[in-house]
Every structure is written in C-alpha cells, then in structure tokens.
Design a protein that fits this description.
The chain is an all-alpha fold. The protein contains 6 helices and no strands.
Length: 138
C-alpha cells in the first residue's frame, strides 16, 4: 500500500505538538498545524479515499484491462476534488512539496494497482508526471 502524503503531514503536526509539550520547540517554529490544518488533512483524505476506491474499481474483478478513458476519468475526478479542497483553503493548501507528494501518490497508487503509468502516459504523448496537468490548479 502506498503511503499517503497526509500521513507525513499528520506526523509533522504531531512532532510539533510533542516538541512544544517537551519544551524543545520554540512556539514560533511550530508551523506544521498552520501548514496542514486538521480539516485540510481530513478533506484531502476523503478525496484520496475515493481515489483508492475508484482505482480498485479499474482493476478488481475485471476480465479486460481498464480503458485509458476510464483511467483519465478517475484522475480528472481526483484532481478536480483536490482543486476544490485547495480552493477552500484560499489556494494555499498545496504548496510545492505537497503538490509533488500528491502527484507521486496518484502515480504510485495507479502503479500499485497494476496500471503501467509510463505506458499509459506514453500512449498520450506525455510523461507520468504530466497525467494530472490538464486539470490541476494546485
């Protein structure tokens, strides 16, 4: 199973809380909760839950491989849902590091499900790192 970016964000928040409680972290340096508020993490996890379910639907109990159009539909729906989360946080939920983690997560979940992301992207004259670009606003 692919680790979600939200797991790392939660771990950073927890680390800040522990550092503050232990007195080893200056309150001015405890920024994780501001970067990754609980609501934003929860909203993102809801999108990722659906994505994982949708990807499973692309491959489980099927006699034929998923068509590229089906794969793109799942990616589009996921990216647009992440756009909505980002919009709820004034377009600041996903900065550069978060963007990279989310894109890698999408690619890796597809790979983990047995979808050859490189071949899929190549059939559409793009790289694996471009499969979210058409819809991504974050």
């Amino acid at each position: 199973m692919v680790e979600r970016p939200t797991a790392a964000w939660r771990a950073n928040v927890t680390e800040d809380i522990a550092g503050l409680a232990a007195g080893t972290l200056d309150p001015d340096e405890a920024v994780a909760a501001q970067l990754w508020p609980d609501d934003m993490i929860r909203d993102t996890d809801e999108v990722l839950d659906r994505f994982e379910t949708d990807v499973a639907g692309l491959v489980n109990h099927r006699y034929e491989p998923a068509e590229d159009a089906e794969i793109f539909e799942v990616i589009e729906r996921t990216v647009k849902a992440l756009n909505a989360v980002n919009a709820r946080y004034d377009q600041a939920a996903y900065e550069t590091d978060e963007r990279e983690l989310l894109c890698s997560y999408i690619e890796n979940v597809l790979d983990d499900a047995g979808i050859d992301v490189d071949a899929f992207a190549g059939r559409h004259r793009m790289t694996r790192h471009e499969i979210t670009d058409e819809w991504r606003e974050w």
